[in-house]
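Sequence, please.
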């Protein structure tokens, strides 16, 4: 259900999202099997989307 994964704009923190993105990139470099790589790439996509949302909301 989408409502379960929704994040409120006031809960978004760009510094935390950037740090999480950096850690996910490091984890991807260390990932060894396809399942682990897929999981990390999903996290990377989520954090990149959060950062994009933060920047878009900031422009309003």
């Amino acid at each position: 259900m989408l409502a379960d994964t929704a994040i409120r704009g006031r809960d978004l923190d760009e510094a935390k999202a950037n740090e999480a993105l950096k850690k996910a990139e490091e984890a991807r470099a260390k990932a060894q099997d396809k399942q682990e790589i897929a999981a990390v790439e999903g996290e990377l996509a989520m954090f990149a989307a959060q950062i994009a949302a933060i920047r878009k909301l900031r422009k309003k």
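The chain has three helices and no strands.
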